[in-house]
Amino acid sequence: MLVTVTASVEAIDIEKREVSLKGPLGNTATFTVDQRVKRLNELKVGDLVQADYYLSIAAELRAPTPEEEKTPFVVLEAATKAPPGTAPAAGGLRRFKVVATIEGLDRPTQTITVKGPLGNLLTARVADAANLTKMRIGEKIIVTLTEALAVSLEKVEKKRVN
């Protein structure tokens, strides 16, 4: 799914094309910024931006293995390139595999809220509502998040308070 967030810039690495953003709920995430995003060098720490990026979430309804419990947060990074003979293109993504604890289940809206090992909360819609009856608050599950490149990053003017 395409996600849009308005957040403040916490850090910028121009060479790696990475931007760390702090969202409205206080959570911080680092994104690789697509080459199509121009004027990245004009952003400064503290700027308010609107970022569009792609996010995919998958959860396994099973208890974590002892090995997963020992390493509850694993980051895998990958980059892709168009195959020979096709139009030039490149992309990047980050994959996170975490042991998460179910913090909330909302059957009317078909959403689940999980808390990761670093304390971050994530609320997502469940594809199969029947799975909500199989889950219990406090239960640990495996969640895999795949975060693609930030495809747009636009500076937003801060609203003045009178």
Unreliable segments of 5+ consecutive residues = 86-91
- Tell me the structural class: mainly beta
User: How is the main sheet built?
Assistant: 9 strands, antiparallel
Rounded mean pLDDT is 82
Number of strands: 9
Compute the CA-based radius of gyration.
18 Å
The rounded distance between the terminal residues' Cα atoms is 37 Å
Strand content: over 45%
Main attributes?
162 residues, mainly beta, nine-stranded antiparallel sheet, 1 helix, 3% helix
Task: List the topology elements.
Elements: E1 2-13, E2 18-22, E3 28-32, E4 48-60, H1 66-70, E5 73-81, E6 90-106, E7 111-115, E8 121-125, E9 140-156
Task: Give an overview in words.
Residues 86-91 have low confidence and may be disordered. Strands 1, 2, 3, 4, 5, 6, 7, 8 and 9 form a nine-stranded antiparallel sheet that branches. The chain has one domain (2-156). The protein is mainly β and 162 residues long. Helices cover 3% and strands 54% of the residues. The chain has one helix at residues 66-70, and strands at residues 2-13, 18-22, 28-32, 48-60, 73-81, 90-106, 111-115, 121-125, 140-156. The longest helix has 5 residues, at 66-70. The chain has one helix and nine strands. A hairpin with a 4-residue loop joins strand 1 and strand 2 (18-22).
